[in-house]
């Protein structure tokens, strides 16, 4: 049985729930009272199982009253970063506990959302998750929550302070089509004038503060250790957490984190090259030796994998990610550019630096590399959305540069355990785990991200040495004595 308590819920709504056990009522009431006016529309659930084996753990899409379709899509969101069902890390136990979800009341946009799961059998620790793309606080339910709550961690997440998207038309100045031949346009909430990307860090930190408060209220003491985890834009949030909030976090694992820097490379320098050359590559009959294919690879992208004349790795990214991602970032960071008049493929970031304030916009939420807590990046060599040399390796270079500085009050004298950094490159890993179903040459990153998390915990709590940065071979594992230290020799291993 699952018992639900809503703060300030109408009496009619409460009547539909079974009578509450005294202990459950007290636990949820106490938790809601602890947050008080900090949360709005808050719901507390005394759950028989906090894993996704319980269908009530992740709400249905479009289940928040008053929001348009596609603004809140938790069921979709949890599948975007996880492998397909048969390949996910298995759920092997039931995890009873409390689940709390609601809006962060201090957010003037009314969009910031917060999730907290408190296992009954708690191990004294807390995990705070980022969210990929423009996804909800339920984004990590398959990829992260299931793994950590089974180990007894309290789990919190947030949505970067922003809802997902809504359908629109080509007449909408903020509309983005789904790909170059699509007639479907969407408007991302993240492109609203009150949604600067700098909020992403703000709500990662806010989620940690709220979660620690909820943990202390429920268990009578704060967490002994707090860890950050996240994927893609959620990985960016982890990096910023390690850079800006060492008082809240003890370590982090970022999986395919987005690199943000006002200088090249960044998404606005890379994606136009892929878009500009893809059509000629397709017209060449997918010739890997064509000028177009060479141009795409020269822009940092991994080689294509061809399953059939109509099914290739690049084609999948072209149809699902390249243009719509380019449009979303450009509309937010350089709204003066004529997206579909001048063309997404013709966007020139360097030229736009003198024609707009795009450089300052990107700089406003850039990563610095100045980590103040240990951090592991796990990234795939075949990532065709965030190419590894322009994102994971670029961030590793940023960290190395920051740690080499002397005399700035932070550099090499900083305790190594507090600022250790590792990059584990997964040979043939890519950004979208489910693509392995079509392209079996690809490798899953999820098991290595989980292994990296366990290594991080051991490093923080027992001072165990983190394995050196390394290339994780196909069908291999992160090794204490790696056979391939440093970068993978090739992006693709047949």
**What is Rg?**
22 Å
On the 0 to 100 scale, the average pLDDT is: 93
The 3D shape can be described as: globular
Gap between N and C termini, in Å?
Answer: 50 Å
Residue share in β-strands? 15-25%
Task: Indicate the low-confidence ranges by residue numbers.
Answer: 7-22, 406-417
Strand order of the largest sheet: 1-2-3-4-6-5-10-11-14-15-16
Number of helices: 15
Number of strands: 16
Q: Main β-sheet: number of strands, strand sense, barrel status? A: 11 strands, mixed
Secondary structural class: alpha/beta
Can you give the helix content as a percent range? Answer: 25-40%
Question: What does this protein look like?
Answer:
33% of the residues lie in helices and 16% in strands. The chain is of the alpha/beta class and 494 residues long. The strands form three sheets. Strands 1-2-3-4-6-5-10-11-14-15-16 form an eleven-stranded mixed β-sheet, with helices on both faces. It has a three-stranded antiparallel β-sheet with strand order 7-9-8, with helices on one face. α7 packs antiparallel against α8 and α7 runs antiparallel to α9. The longest helix has 21 residues, at 199-219. It is globular and about 65 Å long. The relative contact order is 0.10.
């Amino acid at each position: 049985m699952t018992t639900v308590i809503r703060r300030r819920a109408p009496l009619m709504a409460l009547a539909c729930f079974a009578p509450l056990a005294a202990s459950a009522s007290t636990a949820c009431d106490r938790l809601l009272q602890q947050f008080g006016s900090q949360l709005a529309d808050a719901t507390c659930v005394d759950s028989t199982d906090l894993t996704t084996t319980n269908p009530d753990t992740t709400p249905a899409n479009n289940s928040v009253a008053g929001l348009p379709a596609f603004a809140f899509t938790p069921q979709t969101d949890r599948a975007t970063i996880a492998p397909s069902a048969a390949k996910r890390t298995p759920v092997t136990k039931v995890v009873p506990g409390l689940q709390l979800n609601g809006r962060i009341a201090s957010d003037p946009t009314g969009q910031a959302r917060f999730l907290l799961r408190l296992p009954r059998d708690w191990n004294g620790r807390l995990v705070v998750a980022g969210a990929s793309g423009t996804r909800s606080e339920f984004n990590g339910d398959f990829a992260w929550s299931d793994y950590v709550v089974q180990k007894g961690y309290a789990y919190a997440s947030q949505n970067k302070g922003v809802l997902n998207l809504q359908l629109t038309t080509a007449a909408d100045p903020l509309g983005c089509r789904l790909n170059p031949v699509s007639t479907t346009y969407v408007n991302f909430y993240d492109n609203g004038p009150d949604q600067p990307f700098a909020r992403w860090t703000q709500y990662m930190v806010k989620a940690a503060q709220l979660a620690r408060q909820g943990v202390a209220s429920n268990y009578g003491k704060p967490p002994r250790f707090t860890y950050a985890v996240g994927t893609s834009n959620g990985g960016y949030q982890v990096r910023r957490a390690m850079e800006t909030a060492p008082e809240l976090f003890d370590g982090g694992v970022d999986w395919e984190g987005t690199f943000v820097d006002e200088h090249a490379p960044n998404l606005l320098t890379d994606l136009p090259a892929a878009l500009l050359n893809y059509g000629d590559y397709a017209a060449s009959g997918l010739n890997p030796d064509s000028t177009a294919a060479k141009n795409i690879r020269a822009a940092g992208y991994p080689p294509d994998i061809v399953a059939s004349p109509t099914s290739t790795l690049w084609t999948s990214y072209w149809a699902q990610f390249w243009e719509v991602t380019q449009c979303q970032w450009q509309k937010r960071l350089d709204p003066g550019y004529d997206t579909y008049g001048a063309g997404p493929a013709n966007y020139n970031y360097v030229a736009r630096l003198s024609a707009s304030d795009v450089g300052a916009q990107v700089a406003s939420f850039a990563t610095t590399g100045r980590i103040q807590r240990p951090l592991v990046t796990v990234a795939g060599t075949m990532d065709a959305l965030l190419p590894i040399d322009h994102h994971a390796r670029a961030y590793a270079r940023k960290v190395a540069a920051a740690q080499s500085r002397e005399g700035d009050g932070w550099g090499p004298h900083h305790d190594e355990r507090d600022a250790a950094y590792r990059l584990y490159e997964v040979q043939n890993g890519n950004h979208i785990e489910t693509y392995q179903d079509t392209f079996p040459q690809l490798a899953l990153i999820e098991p290595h991200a989980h292994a990296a998390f366990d290594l991080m915990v051991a490093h923080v709590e027992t001072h165990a040495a983190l394995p050196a940065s390394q290339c994780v071979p196909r069908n291999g594992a992160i090794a204490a004595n790696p056979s391939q230290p440093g970068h993978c020799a090739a992006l693709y291993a047949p």
